[in-house]
Amino acid sequence: MEPVHIIGAGLAGSEAAWQIARAGVPVILHEMRPAKGTFAHKTGNCAEMVCSNSFRSDDDMMNAVGQLHWEMRTAGGLIMAMADRHKLPAGGALAVDREAFSAAVTETLQAEPLIRIVPGEITDLPQDGNWIVATGPLTSDALAQAIRAVTGTDALAFFDAIAPIVHADTIDMSVAWEQSRYDKGETEAEQRAYINCPMTREQYEAFIDALLAAEKTEFHEGETAGYFDGCLPIEVMAERGRETLRHGPMKPVGLTNAHKPDEKAYAVVQLRRDNAMGTLYNIVGFQTKMKYGAQTQVFRMIPGLENASFARLGGIHRNSFLNSPTLLDDRMRLRQRPNLRFAGQVTGVEGYVESAAMGLLAGRMAAAQAQGRDLPPPAPTTAMGALVHHITGGAEARTFQPMNVNFGLFPPLDEARSGRKGRKDRYPAYTQRAKDDFSAWLATQ
């Protein structure tokens, strides 16, 4: 049997390789790192997480991304299995020790007899064979040019920013306290998964002033800043209005200052554990394009972080993605070159889980093709089906932008199930319908 080739061993490529091998089809996984790196990646490991260590909500009853977690687990997904093995306390979210997670994905793929990982950069799109392109938002210049040559169009681009990471022992816990918002989580560790730094109104106003005045990274000539709203730099949010941050990542609701329980904070900065030892914390929602010197000055204005030491400062990078509604069919194949499937963030989904989910689908579809079968996507009533439907035809091509999974992508519930119910009733109806339909899709394979 001819192998399936995958370009890129990120979350999507790693998941695709695993699904193909589980189906009994050989895989050749091509990865250019570490021989050729990117500015955002630090290792040559598979499934390296470069922006955050969170897979977001793990609630599969009330949250669309939690439902996507459920579907990936039910389909035997490698990414979710390794995330569960290396998870960290994070309230209602699923966060992981990113280094241990990536190492475990790499070791698992290397140990699979049907998977061969081949180092080296692929610079052109093959004319034949069964290929999946899962190169992610940092597709190399040479391959990006090859994609443009085949599609006859420029890939769209937006800018993505990385949040800074702080050494835990440099946080002043006489000012900060441990608590998840609304005390979410079943265990004490989950209920205390975040470190919270409170701000008075005066401190918040001074912080906003410094943030707006700080030196920012300049763009290269010809680049424009088309940010994805789900990952905006904090200074861009602040430019939209002085109150934007305290109604976003710095909102104080659901938190009680353990040191001053009767004093309500005007704003709160949260930090989330970034590794299993609890020695590193990332500043939640604080993606930034400030220059390094400005970052240390501005972030040390946060109460509790006056003497913070940073393991990594924030950064900004360009993410490229296809205008998938015009280029891909519902089997995720490039219409001009059907031997090529695309998967992951390059298709215009946003987020670790969404990217891995598209890798799972592309892998299963490619494996079916290798076995002489055709595998349609799951119903759009499922989280995976809603995503793939959105990127391959459900979205308006003229205004296509990266999208996280959300209930707005799901077909409306029928009147009997929805009625005039609120979210508390509607969301479980969405997720139960999705579970039923996804299980039915799996049963056909």
TrEMBL record:
Entry-linked PROSITE patterns: GIDA_2
Location(s), subcellular: Cytoplasm
The protein's Enzyme Commission number: 2.1.1.74
Pfam families named in the record: GIDA
Residues the entry annotates as binding FAD: 8-13
GO cellular component term, pick one: cytosol
A GO biological process held by the record: tRNA wobble uridine modification
Residue ranges of domain MnmG N-terminal in the record: 4-373
Molecular-function GO terms, alphabetical: flavin adenine dinucleotide binding; tRNA (uracil(54)-C5)-methyltransferase activity, 5,10-methylenetetrahydrofolate-dependent
Cofactor names: FAD
Keyword Methyltransferase part of the UniProt annotation: yes
Signal peptide: none
Catalyses which reaction(s): uridine(54) in tRNA + (6R)-5,10-methylene-5,6,7,8-tetrahydrofolate + NADPH + H(+) = 5-methyluridine(54) in tRNA + (6S)-5,6,7,8-tetrahydrofolate + NADP(+); uridine(54) in tRNA + (6R)-5,10-methylene-5,6,7,8-tetrahydrofolate + NADH + H(+) = 5-methyluridine(54) in tRNA + (6S)-5,6,7,8-tetrahydrofolate + NAD(+)
Keywords for the protein's UniProt record, in alphabetical order: Cytoplasm, FAD, Flavoprotein, Methyltransferase, NAD, NADP, Transferase, tRNA processing
HAMAP family membership: TrmFO (MF_01037)
Family according to the record: Belongs to the MnmG family. TrmFO subfamily.
Job of this protein: NAD-binding protein involved in the addition of a carboxymethylaminomethyl (cmnm) group at the wobble position (U34) of certain tRNAs, forming tRNA-cmnm(5)s(2)U34.
PANTHER family membership: GLUCOSE INHIBITED DIVISION PROTEIN A, METHYLENETETRAHYDROFOLATE--TRNA-(URACIL-5-)-METHYLTRANSFERASE TRMFO
Designated name of the protein: Methylenetetrahydrofolate--tRNA-(uracil-5-)-methyltransferase TrmFO
Source species: Paracoccus lichenicola
Higher taxonomy: Bacteria, Pseudomonadati, Pseudomonadota, Alphaproteobacteria, Rhodobacterales
Gene: trmFO
